[in-house]
């Protein structure tokens, strides 16, 4: 789904006042990181290290793991395609609704697909060699706890579970599954740095797995997929991790307040989420029309969620911004509901 994701403002000839369509950190890239990247621009004159190993070492240390547990990737999306290539032609299970690239990666690798309801994951019987779990889930923020995932790993040892933790830092509801890596061989965790640190344009992610799985993934991965500036950014982030980590409590409070305000509006029903992003169900199937109205009339961008499998044109996704921008959206939705 190359053109079906959020943050598609390029499709409109307008300067947006606020972007609610992309669930990344709302204050954009930190100034200190931008300054550091400017100072390191000359590094693009040389090839990056083939596997970004120096960054992988820092990340392994951060997670208290071995270097052989971490593989750097060109964003989380590359990881899904590499993982799927190891299971070419085999069956995979995907929750719905969820991030579309799992399905696209599996289709590319001729994998028959079965679908389960993401909110029913703990009651699902997995017989497929591969299963994807987005946690917290995109687009609805649904969370599955570490004990619940551990139970799945134990119950279905023949299934390799891919836990996508791209948004794990955007909720206080659950913890990361990283500690389970030392216990289970049928677990691959995919992480992303682009959302929390607002660097989606650099494409930077990584996998965490046992060393044997990491070796197989590395053999399927093209060299130099992580560019020099992404490596520079990643090294800076992990050298200053605590100072760089955003104030998530504030953002989640903004999200909670925005959910309440929209839910109080006529014709809008919020599906509650403990993350910075959430689904809104419309009274009428007008997601595309509402998106265009907000973009063209109010210079506000939201996510039409109708192309998530399991959803339809009754759904939009919103990622909270600051209170001033959130109020712009609430006011615009009020006008839509009476127009």
Question: What would your notes on this structure say?
Answer:
α5 (about 145-155) links the parallel β5 (about 130-135) and β6. The chain has about 350 residues and is of the alpha/beta class. The protein is built from 11 helices and 13 strands. The protein is globular. The strands form 3 sheets. Strands 2-8-7-6-5-3-4 form a 7-stranded mixed beta sheet, sandwiched between helices. It has a 4-stranded antiparallel beta sheet with strand order 9-10-13-12, with helices on one face. It has a two-stranded parallel ribbon with strand order 1-11. The model has no long low-confidence stretch (mean pLDDT about 95).
Share in β-strands = 15-25%
Question: Which word captures the global form?
Answer: globular
Please report the number of helical segments. Answer: 11
Q: Structural class from helices and strands?
A: alpha/beta
């Amino acid at each position: 789904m190359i053109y079906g994701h959020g943050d598609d403002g390029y499709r409109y000839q307008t300067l947006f006042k606020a972007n609610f369509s992309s669930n990344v950190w709302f204050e954009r890239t930190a100034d200190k990181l931008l300054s550091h990247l400017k100072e390191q621009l000359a590094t693009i004159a040389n090839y990056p290290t083939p596997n970004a190993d120096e960054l992988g070492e820092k990340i392994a240390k951060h997670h208290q793991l071995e270097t052989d547990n971490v593989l750097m990737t060109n964003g989380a999306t590359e990881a899904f395609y590499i993982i799927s290539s190891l299971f070419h032609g085999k069956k995979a299970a995907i929750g719905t609704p969820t991030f579309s690239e799992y399905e696209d990666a599996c289709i590319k690798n001729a994998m028959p697909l079965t679908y389960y309801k993401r909110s029913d994951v703990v009651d699902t019987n997995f017989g497929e060699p591969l299963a994807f779990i987005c946690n917290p889930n995109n687009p609805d923020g649904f969370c599955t706890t570490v004990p619940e995932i551990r139970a799945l790993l134990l119950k279905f040892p023949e299934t390799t579970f891919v836990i996508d933790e791209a948004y794990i830092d955007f909720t206080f509801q659950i913890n990361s599954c990283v500690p389970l890596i030392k216990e289970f061989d049928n677990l691959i965790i995919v992480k992303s740095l682009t959302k929390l640190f607002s660097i989606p344009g650099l494409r930077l992610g990584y996998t965490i797995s046992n060393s044997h799985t990491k070796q197989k993934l590395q053999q399927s991965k093209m060299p130099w997929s992580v560019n020099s500036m992404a490596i520079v950014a990643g090294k800076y982030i992990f050298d200053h991790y605590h100072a760089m980590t955003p104030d998530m409590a504030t953002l989640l409070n903004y999200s909670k307040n925005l959910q309440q305000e929209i839910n109080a509006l006529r014709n809008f029903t919020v599906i509650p989420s403990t993350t910075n992003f959430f689904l809104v169900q419309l009274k009428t199937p007008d997601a595309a029309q509402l998106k265009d109205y907000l973009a063209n009339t109010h210079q506000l961008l939201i996510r039409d969620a109708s192309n998530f499998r399991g959803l339809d044109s009754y759904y939009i996704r919103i990622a909270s911004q600051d209170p001033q921008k959130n109020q712009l959206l609430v006011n615009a939705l009020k006008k839509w509901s009476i127009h």
